């Protein structure tokens, strides 16, 4: 005898943004869920009373009745205590996270939400709803541990953001004072070299600070490059000029190709990306060798390249070096191709923010870092 088909779980999506509702509807409808949409807190509460959904996706920031208030009222309704509530928010801070838990939320998803992640979270919430009481106790413990870890992560990110922001002003001040010293005609040659070294290191430190800020922005979906008209030849020459002193200190010849190519992109992001790649190359180039910057026009893209004659990178490590804090052991020389472990991570994020990609290939000898950017002209 054929068993009657089980009704599909109902998912209530409450969000005042039509695009967000459409994205959630498309992702969940493709999985066969019965999706109910509501454009605000009051409408969502009414829909819950009427439809008795199995799971609720609830935006935090809505006019009138916000997500926290809507959740508290849903929990007071018949069957409202059992239906899992997943909060959706662009706010990534400890206070919002704690308020979501106090309001009765079961999960906390930060925007922008990827459709695959949304479906997996809903599936997990529905499975947990069906768990036995004994398993629920175990889940409650695991969930508490997860919440504690999430809170610690958010606190760490918040602290890092404060520290990085506070570092910008003193580092910029160091650079300014070094420039003032260099303008003093009475300065001795030795003092002038020291002041130039201070300025070079201050600028490198400032670039690291800005990289950290941009990595944080990228994680929150806020890294949006400008669209400048860039003369690539001038950009490469500028990077060579800023890194000339470091190249001279390690006895490496640094040069760039002369080109009339132009591109569209964020000049500051691309300049810092190239400076990171050149610093990485200088760190591994042997004395009396060359580091060269070049660019080429492809059919629908431009490609920037930074090549050195160092020890190179093993094929199995060529993807991993763009991850955070990855270090590479090149045979007998234990070196970190990623430096502090963030420079190449920033380069990957900067390339992807422009809709491009970055990879490394064998320079035979050495390594060649390639950045391909869409031709937006």
Total number of helices: 10
Name the structural class: alpha/beta
Mean pLDDT: 84
CATH architecture of the largest domain: 2-Layer Sandwich
CATH class of the largest domain: Alpha Beta
Rg, Å, rounded = 27 Å
Q: What is the terminal separation in angstroms?
A: 65 Å
Strand content: 15-25%
Low-confidence stretches: 330-340
Tell me the CATH topology of the largest domain: Heat Shock Protein 90
Shape: elongated
CATH superfamily of the largest domain: Histidine kinase-like ATPase, C-terminal domain
Give the helices and strands as they follow along the chain.
Answer: EHEHEHEHEHHHEHEEHEEEEHEE
Number of strands: 14
| Percent of residues in helices | 40-55%
How many discrete structural domains? 3
Would you kindly provide a written description of the structure presented here, covering whatever features stand out?
- The structure is a single chain.
- The protein is an alpha/beta fold and 377 residues long.
- The protein has three domains: 10-130, Response regulator (Rossmann fold, 3-Layer(aba) Sandwich), CATH 3.40.50.2300; 152-219; 228-374, Histidine kinase-like ATPase, C-terminal domain (Heat Shock Protein 90).
- The chain contains ten helices and 14 strands.
- It has helices at 18-29, 41-51, 67-75, 94-102, 115-129, 133-182, 189-219, 232-249, 267-284, 343-353, and strands spanning 10-14, 34-38, 55-59, 85-89, 107-110, 228-231, 253-256, 262-265, 290-297, 301-307, 329-330, 333-334, 357-362, 367-374.
- The strands form four sheets. The protein has a five-stranded parallel beta sheet with strand order 2-1-3-4-5, with helices on both faces.
- The N and C termini lie far apart (65 Å).
